[in-house]
Amino acid sequence: RSEVRVRHPGAVEAVAGLTTLVGADLARSIYALTSPIGYVFALVIGSLAVTGEFRHKTITASLLVEPRRGILLVAKLIAGIPMGLLYGVLGTLAVVATAAPILATVGDGAFLGDSSTLEVIGLSMLVMVLWTAMGVAFGAVVSNQVAAIVASYKGMTAGGGPKGVGDAVNQSVVITFVLLFIVNFVVSAIYLQVVP
Fold this sequence. Notes:
Helix content is about 75%, strand content about 5%. With about 200 residues, it is mostly helical. Strands 1-2-3 form a three-stranded antiparallel sheet. Strand 2 and strand 3 form a beta hairpin. Helix 2 runs parallel beside helix 5.
C-alpha cells in the first residue's frame, strides 16, 4: 500500500485522502475558531438579555415604559450589539493571542499582516454580534431561561438530518422539564427554609 502525497503550493497537503492545512490557510482556520466554538455562548448571552427580564419580573416595568413590543425588541437588539461585539472581540483576541505566537514559532508563520487573515478575524467578531442578535430574538420567543438555553444548545448541535432534529427537539423538551422541576424544587426548598 503506497502513500500518495500531493502538495498544493502554500495551501493544502493531501495524504491518502486526508487534508492538512498549512501556511495562511491553517492560520485563518485557527483564528476563526471563535465562531464554531463560541457561538453558543453568544446565543445564550443574547437570550439572557430578554429572558432575564421575564425571570426577574422586570418585563412589566419595561412594557409600561414602552408598551409597543416591537420597539422594545428592537431596543433589546440594539443593546445586544455591544455585548456581542465585546464578546466577539474578547473571544477572537484570546484565540489570536494564543495561536499567533505558536504559529510563528512552530508553524509557517502567524500571517497577521495578510489581508485575508485580517478579514477572517474581523468576520469572526461580526459573527458573534449576529449570534447575540439571534439570541435576543430567540429569548423574546422563548421567555424561560432554562428552556431557551437548552433549546439553543440542542438545536444548534442537532445532526443527522430530520431524524436528528426530531430527536434534538424531544431531548430538549425532556431535559427542560427535568431541569425546571429540579430548579423549582431547589428554589422552593430554599424559600421554605428562609420564609417560615
